[in-house]
Amino acid sequence: MSKLAIHGGTPVFRRNITLPSVIQDAERDAIKKVIDHGLLSAFRGGPEVKKFEQEFAKFIGVKYAVATTSGTTALHTSLASFDLKEGDEVLVPAVTFVSTASVALQEKLNVRFVDIDKYYCMDSIDLESKITSRSRAIIPVHLYGQPANMHKILRIASRYNLAIIEDACQSHGARLGNVYTGALGDIGCFSFYQTKNMTTGEGGMITTNSKKMYDQVLLRREHGSPRSSKTWYNYIKLGYNYNMTELQGAIGRAQLQKLNELNRGRIRNAELYDDALNDTELDLPKLRKGVIHVRHSYPVLLPKRYASKRDFFVKALQAEGIPVDVAYPSPLYATPLFSDQKNTARCPRSDDITSRLFTLFTDCAITPEIILATKEAIKKVMKYLDETI
Ligand SMILES: Cc1ncc(COP(=O)(O)O)c(C=O)c1O
Fold this sequence. Notes:
Bound molecules: pyridoxal-5'-phosphate
Oligomer: single chain
Number of helices: 11
Shape: globular
Radius of gyration: 22 Å
């Protein structure tokens, strides 16, 4: 048996993997234009931010888009815009990035965690069973780039009169039929963090077809000062400074031009992982019918017998030089932040999946050579585990 790199053996992959190069000629030129012009930011959005908003809205197929400082602030602004009351409930999948749920705490709302389905998104049957008389909004997440079961979730929302805020932070360009994520619910939220399918470094965007929501969102983004007011210094709501800078707006516009190409690269890499790993015992991601999945990342499940060894497995792969992460290592309710939420109901599939999950990267830094090395390293570590546990 060859010695694992974590135990001092030779790593399978020995080259450094560079960050995906986001800043290329188009982005560099766009930033230079902003710097030469001199306007770096504007209270209600400068010309680059406004154009980015219009172009993003057009791409997603909605009437309005509002740029923010991050996906988290997009989610916070959106949720705050529904004017919910303290103690009202928001339904959130148990497996997601923290801010899908923590924005509810910011608004003094209760979180009800919903189990996930076999595609790692909110389970519609569990969703319906978790609705109470205090439920007001649902935040489905299109996790890893795949649209959630929105046909069912939309039907449930309309039956119980609940708002839908889509967390599309990992699904720029994903579609259900012909409709883009971010255009399916009342409002959609995107992140442009470095690792996302398109980036502005940090940044976010809110999308909606509702003029009413659009006005409410602008109010929150801009310190509660309405655009209809004669003066900026008239505050009618608690608001924030969640304005995107012109530099981010300019990068975003350049990135949006490339989004389809960037997504094609991620999809190609995911298909290469499918081919490379399909003769292993790993549980590979499943595609929902009728969707375009933009493969933000590539989630993989270890066989159950290795569940207690997942953290070792991932560290061992990293030592072999393989880019791998665990997004996410536990359901959110298992973290101290959410431990005093009234909803203590457990979500069995979320518990099981997060104990066996690891995630592979699909961005443009990943080459076919890295994918083959990933397969080799996975086989090497699994063989070690089989011979030692
Ligand atoms: C599903 C999900 N929701 C929300 C966010 C928050 O976005 P940001 O990091 O831009 O605040 C992220 C990004 O990390 C995410 O992946």
